[in-house]
Specification:
This protein has helices spanning 3-14, 17-30, 66-72, 77-80, 103-110, 137-145, 159-163, 183-190, 200-203, 212-219, 250-253, 256-265, and strands spanning 49-50, 55-59, 74-75, 91-96, 101-102, 113-119, 126-132, 150-157, 174-178, 231-235, 237-238, 243-248, 270-272, 278-280. By secondary structure, the chain is α+β, with helices and mostly antiparallel strands. The chain folds into two domains: 35-104 and 161-280, no CATH class; 112-157. A seven-stranded mixed β-sheet has the order 10-4-2-9-12-13-14. The protein has a three-stranded antiparallel β-sheet with strand order 7-6-8. A hairpin with a 6-residue loop joins strand 6 and strand 7. Helix 1 runs antiparallel to helix 2 (17-30). It is globular. The two termini are 38 Å apart.
C-alpha cells in the first residue's frame, strides 16, 4: 500500500460526512503533480522578501526530521504516528505571514516578546496584547509603566521562539518557507482549521473534545497577538514542492556540511540566515 492509499484508509476509518469529503479532496490536491508552483529566486547576499500569505514551518532538532519532511511533505503527525492530545489535531501548524515584509523584519519581530496588559481595574476593565520586537522590551514597558490607564502587565516569549529559528534561542535550527502565491497553493491553504467559513460539525474532528466550544465560540473569532492571530492549521498537510527556501539558525549557518546536505536535498531552493540574507542561492 502506498502512502496516499494509507492516508485515504485512515480518513475512511476515522472521519464522516463533510469532514471526510473535505479531507479526501485535500489528499487529491496534495498529490496533484500537474499544478503550477511559483518560487522566488535569489542570489547569495540578497535579502529575502515574504509576501502576504507565505507560510513558515519549523522542525524540531537540527537535521533530525529534515529528510522525512522533504521526502513526504508536511503531514499531520496524527496520520503518521499515534494520535497526540493536542488542542488542534489532524492538521499541520503554519505561521501565516499577515503582510508583505522582509524576512529580517519578521525574525526581529517574532524573536521578541508578547505582552498583555489590563486597561483599568474591576468591572469595565479590558485586556490588550501586543508584540514587542527583539531588544524593544525596555522601551515598550517604560511607556506602559507611565500610562495611567494601565493597571498591570505580564508577558511571555512569542510562540515562534519555541518553533522556528530565532535571535534569542538555538533550540530550533531549521524552518521552511513555503510559497503560497499559486492558485494551487491557495486551494490547499483554504482548508485551514482557523478558517471561519467552516462550521462546527466540520471542525470538531480537528479539535480536542475539551477545546471545541472555546475554539468555535471564542478563540477563532477573537484572535490577537497572544492567541495568536498569525497561525494556520492546514488539514492533513501540505506538499514539499511548495518549499521555496529554508532559513537556518546560527549553528547550521556555520556548519558547511549541513548546508551542503540541505542544498543537495532541495537543489532549487535558497538557504538564508537569521539576518534574512541568502547564504546559498537558487538562481542559475
Amino acid at each position: 500500500m502506498n502512502l496516499k492509499d494509507k492516508y485515504i484508509e485512515y480518513i475512511n476509518n476515522r472521519f464522516n460526512g463533510k469532514t471526510k469529503e473535505l479531507l479526501l479532496n485535500h489528499i487529491d490536491l496534495f498529490y496533484d503533480d500537474a499544478s503550477d508552483i511559483f518560487k522566488s529566486r535569489y542570489n547569495v547576499g540578497e535579502e529575502v522578501s515574504l509576501s502576504k500569505g507565505t507560510f513558515i514551518h519549523g522542525i524540531f532538532g537540527e537535521l533530525d526530521n529534515f529528510d522525512f519532511t522533504v521526502d513526504n511533505g508536511f503531514i499531520a503527525v496524527d496520520f503518521t504516528e499515534e494520535p497526540r492530545k493536542n488542542k488542534i489535531c489532524n492538521s499541520v501548524g503554519m505561521w501565516n505571514i499577515k503582510e508583505d515584509m522582509l524576512l529580517k523584519d519578521y525574525i526581529n519581530q517574532y524573536s521578541g516578546f508578547t505582552i498583555s496588559y489590563s486597561i483599568g481595574r474591576g468591572p469595565g476593565s479590558r485586556t490588550e496584547s501586543k508584540l514587542i520586537p527583539y531588544h524593544k522590551f525596555d522601551e515598550i514597558t517604560e511607556k506602559i509603566n507611565n500610562d495611567d490607564e494601565v493597571w498591570m502587565y505580564w508577558g511571555d516569549q512569542t510562540k515562534e521562539v519555541r518553533f522556528i529559528p530565532s535571535l534569542v534561542s538555538d533550540k530550533r535550527q531549521i524552518a521552511f518557507i513555503l510559497n503560497m502565491d499559486s492558485d494551487y497553493a491557495k486551494k490547499l491553504a483554504h482548508d485551514d482549521v482557523w478558517n471561519t467559513e467552516f462550521d462546527e460539525e466540520t471542525l470538531t474532528p480537528f479539535l480536542d473534545s475539551r477545546y471545541v466550544e472555546k475554539f468555535i465560540n471564542q478563540d477563532r473569532l477573537n484572535r490577537d497577538a497572544s492567541t495568536t492571530d498569525r497561525e494556520s492549521a492546514i488539514m492533513f498537510g501540505l506538499p514539499a514542492k511548495l518549499i521555496e527556501g529554508v532559513f537556518v539558525g546560527r549553528k547550521i549557518e556555520n556548519d558547511k556540511e549541513s548546508l551542503k546536505y540541505i542544498k543537495s536535498k532541495l537543489p532549487d531552493c535558497y538557504i538564508c540566515n537569521l539576518d534574512g540574507k541568502v547564504i546559498v542561492g537558487n538562481k542559475n
